[in-house]
Design brief:
The protein is mainly α. It has one domain: Orthogonal Bundle (Tetracycline Repressor, domain 2), CATH 1.10.357.140. Helices cover about 70% and strands about 0% of the residues. The chain is built from 16 helices and no strands. It starts with a helix and ends with a helix. About 40% of the residues are buried. The N terminus is likely disordered.
Length: about 325
């Protein structure tokens, strides 16, 4: 009984002093935070799958979705709002593919996750799910994602298929490169190339490439700061990260990256002939990005998470800026 309790995922179980007099209950800091997934209304059999998909942590979904919506907004006619139907399609795809990405990540990293404080309770690392179960779940996720993709035009379908090698390979980058967050940025912002193409059927390189590059720079900043939570564990495990590469004083390099991202987004506005309203929003976005860099305490886990989480709002700011740049002339 004790063995089953200690292996179960997501439960805050304390062994009684009678059954385990030598082991005190774990401290609250060592327990995973409570999630709605553990509520009584959720069947126990599906809880590990929901945790594997990060169903209770949707910040990552928004970070994947915003570049798609930026691109869809860029495709709208002057004076018009973005295509709501297309936004809904991409929102559905983002939920599915972000969850699939989490499954792929955990399949690659399960042996490492066991030794990292932030990830040791994930379903594969804790033993709540087996590898065959996770692979079966991934098959369902990818099939659902393909169903969404097939609703788009042929050019966009080709772009979507082209992204899959990056989705599969990203978790491995921490083994091979000091800049895995750069690869993540290239993967997570692929939607910046797809949204416009899905609406128009055309791949407008002049506008889409700077939008994509701006998104990559944005991701490189926020995920590098986020990576400082795992820096000590990554070092012990022999893994690489941009946080380890930049060391204790990343502010200068990250500021350069942020400036490049803002310049790329500004270029997007110029090539797409957006109005002054777009640049007002882009300036606010840049200020928020610089605030993240210069205010972050690299040893404060809660503060790093708060800055990471704030990007789901700064991504919304760029979306609103593009819409305003199309409507307000």
């Amino acid at each position: 009984m004790r063995r089953n309790l200690t292996k179960s995922y997501g439960f805050r179980c304390f062994l009684s002093s009678k059954s385990s007099p030598q082991q005190p209950p774990p401290s609250s800091s060592s327990l995973p935070p409570f999630s709605w997934i553990e509520s009584d209304g959720i069947p126990k059999s599906i809880r590990p799958y929901l945790h594997l998909a990060r169903a209770d942590k949707q910040a990552g979904t928004m970070l994947l979705l915003w570049p798609c919506w930026w691109s869809i907004a860029l495709a709208s006619d002057v004076g018009s709002i973005p295509d709501i139907s297309m936004m809904t399609t991409f929102a559905t795809g983002a939920v599915i593919m972000r969850s699939a990405g989490c499954t792929i990540n955990d399949l690659w990293d399960m042996k490492y996750d066991k030794h990292v404080e932030r990830t040791k309770n994930r379903p594969l690392a804790s033993g709540a799910l087996s590898v065959p179960q996770a692979i079966g779940f991934l098959g369902i996720q990818l099939t659902a994602g393909l169903g969404v993709l097939l609703n788009l035009n042929p050019t966009c379908i080709a772009l979507g298929v082209a992204s899959m090698p990056m989705v599969v390979a990203y978790p491995l980058m921490k083994r091979f490169t000091n800049w895995p967050q750069l690869f993540l940025g290239a993967t997570f912002n692929w939607g910046a190339l797809m949204g416009y193409t899905a609406v128009t059927g055309d791949f407008a390189m002049a506008s889409l490439l700077p939008l994509y590059m701006g998104g990559i720079g944005w991701t490189l900043v926020y995920d590098t700061l986020y990576g400082y939570q795992d820096r000590d564990d990554d070092k012990k495990l022999g893994l690489k990260s941009t946080a380890l590469t930049l060391g204790d004083h990343p502010q200068g390099p990250l500021t350069v990256i942020a400036a490049a991202a803002i310049a790329a987004l500004t270029s997007t506005g110029v090539t797409a002939d957006l109005s002054w309203a777009y640049y007002m929003g882009t300036s606010a976005f840049g200020s928020q990005l610089l605030w993240q860099i210069w205010s972050a305490d690299l040893n404060d886990t809660k503060g790093l998470w708060a800055r990471f989480n704030s990007n789901k709002y700064s991504g919304a700011l760029i979306f609103a800026s593009i819409v305003a740049g199309k409507i307000i002339v």
